[in-house]
Fold this sequence. Notes:
Blueprint: H1 2-18, H2 30-41, E1 56-58, E2 65-76, E3 82-92, E4 96-98, H3 100-111, E5 114-115, H4 117-132, E6 136-145, H5 146-149, E7 160-167, H6 168-171, H7 173-184
Helix pairs in contact: 1-2
Amino acid sequence: MQKADGVMDGFRELMELCGDDPKRDGLLDTPYRVLKAYGEYTEGYREDPKRHLEKIFDVPHKELVLVKDIEFYSMCEHHFAPFFGVAHVGYIPNERITGLSKIARMVEGYAKRFQVQERMTTEIISAIEEVLEPAGVMVVMEAKHMCMCGRGVRNTSSSTTTSSVRGIFANDHRARDEFLSLIRR
Length: 185
């Protein structure tokens, strides 16, 4: 608990540096609340997100499985500012499928870390490729970054899109176009 006390003292110093009094009524318990919140923001470090995908079913489905609009919330590793958005994850099974909620849980596991969107996109696609061994997998992520929208350039209307394609999606434009048309609906 000594380490936690030091972190909370650091938050008190930060509040003073920013111009507020950490002893005033509304801020007295803030260092503890911030420490507790960061524990929640970083829950993904306490798990291996790809393990969610290990719940598999033998189903003879060889067409696209798409889970779109998976909401996620993460923390930019450069500014510790939030970024949030949606992930669209699709794959074409070879022999096995996973539970749909398992894909969302896996995305959340990677999001709940200090992150950059580019790495998160790669981690998600690599996990699906490694565990499910699909014929193809594609991930598109769209997010608002508070490190860009709420500070710095303050461009509030901008968003960032990242994508990654593997297998059939990398070589077959029809498969890629199907995925993209479905996420635009």
